């Protein structure tokens, strides 16, 4: 006679609400937290926690302004070597370097930055 096992418990694939995900992420990446311990406590894999973190960071970066630290270099009263006018120099991570004169319209400077982003 053949045997059949009937699983009536929780479904195989669990659904986590955004609030549950946020609670787990805060517990896993809070000060002094251990991701493995949090994963065991909530019965979720560490890989899934890191996936949720990566997704949350991608959304946060996409929705936030892209501010970066600025440094002032050169002489205090001098310009960028172009006749004394102030110049903004942008060094992008891909190696692109852009110089924008202070007299350039804000819309033009913003368009250039967006195009190179």
Automatic annotation (TrEMBL):
User: What start and end residues bound the annotated signal peptide?
Assistant: none
Q: Which GO terms of the molecular function aspect are on file? A: sequence-specific DNA binding; transposase activity
The cross-references to Pfam families, in alphabetical order and at most eight, read:
HTH_Tnp_1
Q: Which InterPro entries match?
A: Transposase_8, Trp_repressor/repl_initiator
Domain of life per record: Bacteria
A biological process (GO) of this protein is:
DNA transposition
Q: Which NCBIfam families match?
A: IS66_ISRel24_TnpA
Q: What is this protein called?
A: Transposase
Q: Which organism is it from?
A: Rhizobium leucaenae
Q: What is the lineage of its organism?
A: Bacteria, Pseudomonadati, Pseudomonadota, Alphaproteobacteria, Hyphomicrobiales
